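Consider the tokenized backbone below.
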């Protein structure tokens, strides 16, 4: 029995490369003391992500094994459901995240980004890019999309980040407290929008509930905190970690990106592949086999827990040339950082757009941006499901 290998924001532990070659599907002991199958090769991870025999609902229901190191979810959350329930709920919000609708948001995202960066530059030659940029950018964008009043965003950010935090030493209490506060807030926000509907996604979902009876009241509340929580925390972490990777591992490419902004979308895809977001090196969402599955030369039995190692899949040498190198000009890059199959990330277009606009803004305004402290002194949140920087101090100028 193997312990679950570790990882860093730079990627999975070297042990994963050995597993891909010798034992691509292997039993591991998780942080919660539960045995699970760890799947490490790209093709296997991709196929199993879309395999209906692997159930999220079984992993989230009453009596499900507590694997540890994974986000607390409730059975009615969309990330906890299988089809057909998942498909019904996804259709209700999918229209808000189409490429066309996200493109209509571009000017507003650009405006938010410009205002944040203008403020940073005006305040002088030092800044904390986590607190002053990486968090408020996606938080403001998702808040406007869903209709959260601007004066509530910072309080909401604290609760949503607590919800995304899992600290096993405290029994997950902080995460559960954040979930309770988010639920309470959303109930109040729904009541306000019922009385005074506006042009936002939450008002549209309320109409779907009240007029068409397509949502239960609990589903409506759950949708609210799920979309807001997921809509900013992951993007904030990805942005902060990507900027860190650029400043530490690809600082010679900063000017190269500044000279030609058309290179940035390709660079963002490579950052999405290369920068490992999940602290457990899985998707953060375990699955349970609903029936026996043959994969990688082994049989996963009905009832077994399964972890899909996305970061390992994104480093598979059978798919990616020189996979451990951060290649900002990489042309063939079919990464699966947004997942695959039923639970493929709804917000992928919005997340990509925010990352591109944010990096364009940084390289344009700060040609000599650099870390203000040694990388070893940067503070990370230990209990987070994601590799989360709590601060990213930078300087520019003389």
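A designed sequence for it:
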């Amino acid at each position: 029995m193997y312990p679950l290998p570790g990882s860093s924001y730079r990627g999975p532990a070297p042990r994963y490369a050995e597993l891909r070659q010798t034992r691509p599907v292997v039993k591991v002991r998780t942080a919660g003391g539960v045995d699970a199958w760890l799947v490490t090769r790209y093709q296997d991870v991709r196929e199993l992500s879309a395999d209906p025999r692997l159930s999220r609902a079984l992993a989230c229901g009453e009596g499900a094994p507590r694997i540890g190191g994974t986000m607390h979810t409730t059975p009615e959350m969309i990330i906890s459901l299988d089809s057909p329930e998942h498909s019904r709920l996804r259709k209700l919000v999918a229209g808000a995240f189409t490429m066309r609708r996200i493109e209509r948001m571009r000017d507003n995202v650009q405006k938010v980004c410009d205002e944040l960066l203008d403020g940073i530059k005006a305040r002088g030659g030092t800044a904390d890019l986590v607190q002053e940029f990486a968090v408020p950018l996606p938080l403001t964008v998702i808040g406007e999309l869903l209709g959260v009043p601007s004066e509530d965003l910072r309080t909401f950010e604290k609760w949503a980040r607590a919800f995304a935090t899992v600290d096993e030493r405290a029994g997950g209490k902080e995460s559960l407290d954040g979930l309770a506060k988010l639920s309470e807030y959303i109930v109040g926000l729904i009541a306000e929008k019922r009385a005074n509907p506006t042009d936002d996604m939450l008002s549209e979902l309320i109409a779907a509930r009240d007029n068409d009876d397509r949502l239960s009241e609990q589903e409506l509340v759950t949708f609210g905190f799920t979309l807001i929580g997921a809509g900013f925390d992951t993007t904030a972490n990805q942005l902060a970690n990507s900027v860190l990777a650029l400043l530490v591992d690809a600082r010679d490419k900063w000017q190269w990106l500044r000279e030609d902004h058309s290179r940035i979308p390709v660079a963002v895809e490579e950052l999405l592949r290369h920068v490992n977001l999940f602290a457990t090196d899985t998707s953060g969402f375990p699955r349970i086999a609903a029936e026996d599955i043959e994969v990688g030369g082994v049989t996963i039995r009905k009832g077994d827990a399964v972890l899909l190692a996305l970061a390992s899949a994104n480093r598979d040498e059978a798919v990616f040339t020189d996979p451990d190198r951060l290649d900002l000009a990489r042309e063939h890059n079919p990464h699966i950082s947004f997942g695959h199959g039923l639970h493929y990330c709804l917000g992928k277009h919005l997340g990509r757009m925010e990352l591109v606009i944010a990096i364009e803004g940084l390289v344009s305004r700060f040609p000599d941006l650099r870390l203000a402290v040694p990388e070893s002194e940067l503070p990370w949140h230990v209990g987070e499901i994601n590799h989360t920087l709590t601060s990213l101090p930078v300087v520019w100028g003389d």
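Residues 217-249 form the longest helix (33 residues).
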